Amino acid sequence: MHPRIEDYALIGDEQTAALVGLDGSVDWLCLPRFDSAACFARLLGDKENGHWRIAPKGADRCTRRSYRPDTLVLDTEWETDEGSVRVTDLMPQRHRAPDLVRVVEGVRGRVTVRSTLRLRFDYGSVVPWMRRSDGHRVAVAGPDSAWLRSEPAVRTWGEDFGTHSEFTVEEGEKVAFVLTWHPSHEPRPPLVDPYEALETSVADWQAWAARCRYDGPHRDAVVRSLITLKALTYKPTGGIVAAATTSLPEELGGVRNWDYRYCWLRDSTLTLGALLSCGYQEEAEAWRDWLVRAAAGDPADLQIMYGLAGERRLPEFEVPWLSGFAGSRPVRIGNEAVKQLQLDVYGEVMDSLSLARRAGLPAKPHVWSMQSILLEFLRSSWRQPDEGLWEVRGGRRSFVHSKVMVWVAADRAVRALEYFPQLSGDLDGWRALRDEVHREVCEKGYDPERNTFTQYYGSRELDAALLLIPRVGFLPPDDPRVVGTIDAIRDELGHGGLVHRYSAEETPVDGLPGAEGTFLACSFWLADALHMTGRTKEARQLFERLVGLANDVGLLSEEYDPVAGVQLGNFPQAFSHIGLVNTALALYGDERAG
Description:
Helix 4 (268-277) runs parallel beside helix 6 (344-358) and helix 4 (268-277) packs parallel to helix 14. Helices cover 32% and strands 22% of the residues. The protein starts with 8 loop residues before the first strand and ends with a helix. It is elongated and about 75 Å long. By secondary structure, it is of the alpha+beta class.
């Protein structure tokens, strides 16, 4: 049986990440960065595309697994007839090179353990040349090199284009494996002590988690979400990737498979709010600084997403040799949506920088000048149709959410001039722009017969992004049009209490065949909207349901199929975990947060 998306757990070193299955197999790992080519790609193919499994000989799925409290260190345990064994997986904070550390420990009895390593560079397509050197197994292919060693040393042998080990552990005995990657033209990096790395990683993660100021209900889920967000941060630049994976399907067997290993501007305000509210100002400042660098330049060239360091070119291509997760093809690398026009990102950038200014983050030179230029661009360009928040590939439209976020951009600029008189700008002109956008949205984006805002001008379709209207301040929560929109979305886009982004079955707006699951971030937005409109009991019930959808180690993907009861989409998804944190803060933060 093919693994489910929720069968995986995440480990990482804040520069890349690996997914570890319930069977003890590392099935996804890109080195040296999140967006590098994978050396383990079984997740999107089969075992011949690369993986590393450590488990008791003859055993299948583990008996139990969990993260060590408030860490990204994973313990996986098996109970067998011979005894029990634990495998502890982590990626320690790197100095020069990325390391994957796997510590095998006997817990009870005497257990035979098997390790099978199949390195396949370039997304599972390149079998490396293997040799022995200085107690290591060394894999080399083109630009990539990886070194495998164990402490204490165990016998390894090559077979079937893999590296195998078999050994026994008794209670209290440990064997640690370390896999280290480096560019093949460079010498081997210094060795990491696996046992010291384990101890240090646990201490560092727990110290970081202890800084969380939230102390309300479901604190464990909030902290796990924050740790996940931290794990998806590219430490050298502060950029946060949307997910650790590419091409995990939004419909099993379908074509809605995208590469999410990049940084989206649309996530910026929600991410900043979550980090600042929970006490992580350093991380918030790093994300703000990444945003400022990425957005710098001609406002007409502002992209919806960038690479980890702000790279602009993210060409999309397909990888034909990978069969896809559960046969979901194509497998895509890169993201063609980078070329789209999405006017909402201007509002999200303006809102993020406004939030940073109000929160007292250290000022950055030229930020206000950049914001002013963005506003002037919008003044002449805001009427253009665009591809919208959901990056549809079915043609541009006048999406209502995009226009609302144009209003947000003008509103935040006006408020900045009102609150910070030392700033200069066209106050009257920006107020006029704000008023004009507001009038047009209420006239063209609202259906009075159904008492709801619509997905785009003149349509009857709905869009879950409209749930953000009261949150961004476009209309007050008690406005009948807001309440009507929330109810319409719940009725028409709802499924089992959760919500879809939009109707993919009834409209060709996204230009793609097939359907998708309910969108978890949108379902958190529904909880927020219900709370803002006075229906807090319903909001809390929905929040409880959403928290319950996380897998056994607290992770959420992008979507959920309420019929099949499985997670869908790239994993773990930053947008979903940001939604969890922000909704917890909205529902309980005033009561219990520090």
